[in-house]
From TrEMBL:
The chain crosses the membrane at residues 12-38. PANTHER family: AB HYDROLASE-1 DOMAIN-CONTAINING PROTEIN-RELATED, ESTERASE_LIPASE_THIOESTERASE DOMAIN-CONTAINING PROTEIN. It comes from the Bacteria. Pfam families: Abhydrolase_6. GO terms for molecular function: catalytic activity. Residues 49-271 form the AB hydrolase-1 domain. InterPro entries: AB_hydrolase_1, AB_hydrolase_fold, Sec-Metab_Biosynth_Hydrolase. This is Pimeloyl-ACP methyl ester carboxylesterase. Keywords: Membrane, Transmembrane, Transmembrane helix.
């Protein structure tokens, strides 16, 4: 009888240990699974930052900002802006946005602000707009009209106008900033060698793009952040303040040239990340 009890006791003990061990294993898996899920959610929770450059620049003008954002774990795309007109340029940007899954933050510099204002409209995946020394046109307004609303822009005297003819016969005028005037006009607080590279690689904008009136304004129904460059010689600082206040933007003023994303990349990245965190 003692032997039977001993066997039964051993079986009971063994079963109990199995249950306890299984429970511990399940608990460990649950903890690991929860941690993995939390990590996965954390990674997925960060929206894609889509950067749109403006006139007289290219996507490389975002390089410093991209480094800061990527260091903090944000997926980033710097789109190429054709600089032909807000409607057509917004269509080009939309073709990029349509291939990006999940939430997005749109960031526009200068004329790029006109483009994101159009491209971001009626898109629920665009969670916020960030304007960097940029235009925030209302429907019916053009970039040229907003520039001339306040004094302070010295851009007209720094421009070269170059006529062009398209293969179909259509004609127009491209605008460049003269190389000798580029740094003072566009990037006064950027190192001279960097400004020289920027001048050599600048993209021209069609004059008609600055005269084209906006049809929609995504900032009218989305959260807005704005970086105002107080030493800007392209878009007068008072014009930037007017547009930003009208859009009820979270405003950060920086003592910087029009190329604030090049001279102060961390400040610009911090504003973008503020927008991303606030809209998650």
């Amino acid at each position: 009888m003692a032997d039977i009890k001993g066997v039964r006791g051993q079986r009971i003990l063994a079963n109990a240990l199995s249950v306890v061990t299984a429970g511990v294993a399940v608990g460990v898996l649950a903890v690991v699974g929860t941690a993995s899920a939390a990590t996965s959610v954390e990674k997925q929770a960060k929206p894609t930052i889509v950067l749109e450059h403006g006139a007289f620049a290219d996507a490389a003008s975002w390089n410093g900002v991209i480094k800061e954002l990527r260091r903090d774990g944000y997926p980033v795309i710097a789109a190429a802006n054709p600089l032909r007109g807000p409607a057509s340029d917004a269509a080009a940007l939309r073709s990029v946005l349509d291939h990006v899954e999940g939430p997005k933050i749109l960031v526009g510099h200068s004329y790029g602000g006109s483009v994101i204002s159009t491209a971001g409209a009626n898109d629920p995946q665009v969670k916020a707009l960030v304007y960097v020394a940029a235009f925030l046109p209302a429907p019916g307004e053009s970039a040229l009209e907003l520039t001339n609303k306040y004094p302070g822009s010295t851009l007209p005297n720094a421009l070269d106008a170059v006529p062009f003819t398209l293969p179909g016969g259509a004609t127009g005028t491209d605008l460049y900033i003269k190389t000798a005037k580029f740094r003072q006009q566009f990037a006064a607080d950027v190192p001279a060698d960097t400004a020289a590279l920027m001048a050599a690689t600048q993209r021209p904008i069609a004059q008609a793009a600055l005269e084209e009136k906006a049809e929609v304004a995504a900032w009218q129904n989305k959260p807005v952040w704005s970086v105002v460059a107080t030493q800007d010689l392209n878009i007068p600082v008072e014009a930037q303040r007017f547009m930003s206040r009208r859009a009820h933007a979270h405003i950060t003023e920086v003592r910087a040239s029009h190329s604030v994303a090049v001279s102060h990349p961390k400040t610009v990245a911090d504003v973008i990340e503020d927008a991303a965190r606030a809209t998650r």
